[in-house]
Amino acid sequence: MEIRHFRYFLSVAHHGHFTRAAEQLGIAPPTLSRQIQDMEKELGVLLFQRSQREVRLTAAGEALLAEAGLAVRQFDAAQLGAQRAGRGETGHLRLGYVASAAYSGVLQQHVEEFTRALPAVDLDISEAPMAQLPAQVRDGTLDLAYVRSPMSLPEELEAIALQEEGFVLALPASSRLNELPEIRAARLGGETFILPEQISGTLEVASAGGFAPRLGQQPGSLVAVIALVSLGRGVAIVPESVVRRVQLPQVNYRPLADCAPRSWLSLLHRRFEKSPLVRRYIEQVRAQSADHTASS
């Protein structure tokens, strides 16, 4: 027997009439009658008591009714589940990110939109050191990752450029640089630089100021960077979004008068991604990025 036989049986049981059941199924009554007879022959029992007026279930038919309904529902659910997975509508997605992706609001915008469109997808979202994220995406530990570019990537990966952002100078409140009406890059030559994960801004400022930077600690998260600045351990070149999100005692944020380094958030993905679910997320991010660019 095939699943269609169960569908035929259930229709006849529901309508109590071969002709009405055949109309609902879209087949000829003799074809339906023959299919039910084939079922009865294979099972070795009568499923229906037939008369000219109506068709009634036998005891064997009553026993089959609940199980046949369950079998059809399970088959339909399995078929739908496979189709939805194939369209990238269900499954498990693992996202990694650096803190500035959350500070900027980009991470929240993308996740909110994706969850609204595909609520059945299970999202596993975690912050991680930026240096580890490319390898984790390449090796499959993560499906996607938000990083701060520019950065070198394995050849297996591509990056979708997202929101561009400038840098600011984070100063201890005790620094004499706070007394200056404007701060130029060259004035930072004698400072110790606390390093965030993305050091391109620090290097660009040092290049503009004509000095080799004195490098301090690289503690990891942006909060840890700003904490060391607040303790007077050095200055830091950090993304502008930090100003709105990380306010600690004894820290001042200042722009640089003659240097405007830039960076941008990127979404890392595998170059030849096969997962329909991951591709759905990538397509959504590309669309949102295009909409943001068009409205800017």
From TrEMBL:
GO cellular component: protein-DNA complex
Keyword field: DNA-binding, Transcription, Transcription regulation
Protein origin, superkingdom: Bacteria
Domain (HTH lysR-type): residue spans on this chain: 1-58
GO molecular function, one term: DNA-binding transcription factor activity
Membrane-crossing segments per the record: none
Gene3D superfamilies attached to this UniProt entry: Periplasmic binding protein-like II, Winged helix-like DNA-binding domain superfamily/Winged helix DNA-binding domain
Family: Belongs to the LysR transcriptional regulatory family.
Name of the protein: LysR family transcriptional regulator
Organism: Pseudomonas denitrificans
